[in-house]
Structure to design on (210 residues):
């Protein structure tokens, strides 16, 4: 992380010490981990302060860590065109903890928060219209959670007899098979069916063969 971002991190930490858990550099980028309840105050400061001016909300996304408590992170990626800098703000939440909406700070947050709710099931309190945005009506679950089944729960098809779209329970078209993922050309150390004769070496040539 370059010196300008280090100075910015020190400035933010000194300006809002009660609202920030920690500030760190990750892969050359500045990351601010904020208290969940104070996220709107932190975002407002980053947007409005003359030394920050992060006026562009690039996106909001979720991250799922099933084995960790709290399980989820909400990540805000901000851009300052004036300062030519980027910053990442994170809050940590669990399944039952709502995150204060950022729509009052960034109008673009509305659809980003709907997407995060749709795909991860993370709630945003006081959101003006928190509903699904990518999945279909009546969709069950949140498809970017790590524990969501890879095949989904229902499949959608058009029924020619009923002349409408129907939802059926997922049925796999083939039985589960275990693959060893070994290349037959490189590193093969497993005897394949039919190759047992090769295990004893080459057989001797028949008598009288030239």
């Amino acid at each position: 992380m370059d010196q300008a971002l280090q100075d910015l991190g020190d400035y933010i930490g000194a300006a809002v010490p009660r609202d920030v858990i920690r500030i760190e550099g990750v892969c050359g980028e500045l990351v601010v981990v904020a208290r969940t309840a104070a996220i709107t105050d932190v975002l407002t400061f980053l947007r409005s302060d003359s030394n920050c001016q992060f006026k562009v909300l690039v996106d909001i996304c979720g991250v799922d860590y099933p084995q960790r408590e709290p399980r989820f992170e909400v990540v805000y990626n901000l851009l300052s065109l004036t300062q030519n800098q980027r910053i990442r703000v994170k809050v940590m939440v669990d399944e039952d903890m709502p995150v204060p909406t950022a729509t009052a700070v960034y109008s673009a947050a509305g659809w980003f928060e709907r997407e995060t709710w749709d795909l991860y099931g993370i709630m945003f309190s006081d959101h003006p219209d928190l509903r699904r945005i990518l999945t279909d009506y009546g969709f069950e679950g949140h498809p970017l959670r790590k524990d969501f089944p890879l095949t989904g729960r229902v499949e959608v098809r058009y029924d020619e007899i009923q002349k409408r779209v129907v939802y059926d329970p997922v049925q796999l078209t083939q039985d589960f098979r275990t693959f060893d993922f070994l290349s037959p050309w490189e590193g093969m150390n497993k005897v394949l069916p039919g190759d047992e004769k090769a295990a004893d070496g080459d057989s001797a040539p028949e008598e009288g063969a030239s």
About this structure: Helices lie at 3-15, 39-48, 109-120. The chain has one domain: 3-150. The chain has a mean pLDDT of 87.
